[in-house]
Design goal:
333 residues; alpha+beta; Helicase, Ruva Protein, domain 3; 2 domains; five-stranded antiparallel β-sheet; four-stranded antiparallel β-sheet; 8 helices; 26% helix; hydrolase; metal-binding
């Protein structure tokens, strides 16, 4: 499912294009008709991303909570205001990144349709079709019909006078009261981009250091820390040279704190570039290559059977709580 950087990027897209605007809400699929009717005609007032969940506030104290899960996706169409501080939104954005991002006339693509050039300059308006999710099948061609026709099973459509956002296949999509929203937040672990990172470090360290659960499972527990998924889990543990099977309470405190601080850094990079870049100290050519291909972007993730980039030992993949765990049995012994 989309990891923390993706959801923060999606929230920023909503902040630029929906907050302070009146929104028409509908459920073409019909499964969210009652919720859409509650939101229809209201003004979006605030958006928050915490870990893998997004909360969009509307007037009269209503909140829309969305968890994309494994198959959810947001598709944006119309005039989209691009943030100059992060990679361009002209394309696919999600856990596996974006498709078709452009900088001027330049384009970097790999076989998976990913790229990561950063948009430079003042915000601009561009008419595009954008998908934000983990898994997508390409982009629709730009069209002139407005609003755009409904394609597929759209759970929720949010529409302003110039921008459309269609939600498909989420794990969770519900309208919450302020108390319900706060209760959901209370169940989530710290997110480096929400609140004080130093306080988040203390909270994360305290929880991990008292748990008998393996650290490899704790990092995926959203009540322990928000936003880490399969990719970041594998990479953070490798970068810390930490065995994923070590009980949390047996991991040295300085290692736990180091993992948190590394997560702070990697999450910021992910939000800024749209890529889960976990390699360090690359020269310009190697960096560009890594940004253009996920095969050159990670230490261990998705490298089962391939030699460790440091020691040469074959990377192992195993099942851990029904998810694939990649690690080096020598470097992380």
């Amino acid at each position: 499912m989309p990891e923390g950087h993706s959801v923060h990027r999606i929230a920023r897209q909503f902040d630029r294009n929906f907050v302070a605007r009146q929104v028409a809400a509908s459920s073409p699929q019909g499964r969210f008709a009652e919720g859409a009717s509650l939101l229809n005609g209201r003004v979006a007032t605030e958006v928050r991303a915490v870990g893998k969940q997004m909360f969009l506030a509307f007037d009269d104290d209503l909140w829309l909570r969305v968890h994309l899960g494994m198959y959810g996706a947001w598709d944006f169409a119309g005039e989209i205001l691009v943030d100059p501080t992060i990679a361009s939104a002209n394309g696919r954005m999600g856990q596996t990144n974006q498709r078709g991002t452009e900088l001027g006339d330049e384009r970097v693509m790999d076989a998976a349709g990913e790229n990561s050039l950063t948009s430079i300059g003042a915000p601009r308006r561009t008419r595009v079709h954008v998908r934000m999710s983990e898994q997508t099948k390409g982009l629709a061609d730009e069209g002139t019909e407005w609003p755009p026709p409904v394609v597929g099973q759209v759970r929720l459509r949010l529409l302003t006078d110039i921008t459309c956002a269609d939600l498909r296949g989420p794990t969770a999509c519900e309208v919450q009261s302020p108390d319900e929203m706060l209760a959901t937040l209370a169940g989530l672990g710290p997110d480096p981009l929400v609140g004080d990172p130093a306080e988040g470090e203390e909270r994360f360290t305290a929880v991990v250091r008292r748990k008998p659960t393996p650290i490899g499972l704790l990092l995926m527990n959203q009540s322990v820390v928000s936003g880490i998924g399969n990719v970041y889990r594998a990479e953070l543990l490798y970068r810390a040279r930490q065995n994923p099977h070590t009980p949390g309470r047996e991991v040295p405190e300085e290692v736990v704190r180091g993992i948190w601080r590394d997560w702070v850094r990697l999450l910021q990079i992910g939000v800024a570039t749209g890529q889960m870049m976990t390699m360090d100290d690359l020269d310009p050519e190697a960096y560009r290559k890594a940004m253009a291909s996920r095969d050159d972007r990670h230490w261990v993730y998705h490298r089962a059977g391939l030699p460790c980039r440091v020691c040469g030992t074959a990377i192992v993949v195993e099942e851990a709580a029904a998810r694939k765990l990649y690690w080096c049995p020598y470097c992380q012994a």
